[in-house]
Specification:
Order of helices and strands: EHEHEEEHEHEHEHEHEEEHEHEH
Largest sheet: 5 strands, parallel
Distance between the termini: 38 Å
Radius of gyration: 18 Å
Mean pLDDT: 96
Structural class: alpha/beta
Strand content: 15-25%
Oligomer: single chain
Strand order of the largest sheet: 1-7-6-2-3
Shape: globular
Helix content: 25-40%
Length: 273
Amino acid sequence: MPENYLLPLLLEARTLNEHLDADSLLIVDLCKPETYAQAHIPGAVFVDYARIIHGVKPVLGLLPDLQRLSDLFSEIGLTADTHVVAYDEEGGGRASRLLWTLEVLGHRRYSLLNGGLHAWVAERCPLSQAVPNITASAYTATIADDAPLVDKAEVLAKLDSDDVRLLDARSEAEYTGAKAYAARGGHIPGAIHFDWMGTFDKDRALRFRPEAELRNELEAAGLTPDKEIIVYCQTHHRSSHSYIMLKWLGYKRVKGYAGAWAEWGNASDTPIE
């Protein structure tokens, strides 16, 4: 892991439990509000998922404007030295979207709690109903020069590039067009299907499946570490989880298409398969 990380990118519940009192640690809960109210990791601050996405129907998964992000991250006390640990109760999609957003802003001190709340409970780690006192900061959000963010124009420009692969994290039915949540069904030409649901180990509280298994399956599908990988789903929710998975597996060039199929499938100037 990079030397400036307080904790590894993929963090196990027992390890987090040993560091709950660590300096500059910010635990962010992206569960449903009622779940947070019932029980959460001690010290965790709640962030409503709707605050880290933006859009107008039908394109709902875009990045919020920088002022909204500045306000949110100031409210929860984020600073340049903060190490963020994010989790949710769905396997990590919402949490991963937060972490991808931080990376877009150039903040790379972060971890995903492997398995999220399910793994935390399975390990019998402590739970709390107390809402922590938060010391607000003065955070200014800016897009990093090397932000892992692509738009429709960039995806279109790279469709014929042998150096680029697209990973479609949606269900098989969405990928084939059997189910369509946009004006048109199907997938971006050349995109490789790698359903995010297939990355979970349901017998281990929704943690990632073993590293070697995932790596072998990705490479067999043509998603190799030497390529630039662009991930997408319907709103860059599920594919944010794919983004973190690839980073964990050591892929160096990974980007997220936030407009995703909601934009691509509703546009009139985009090719589909």
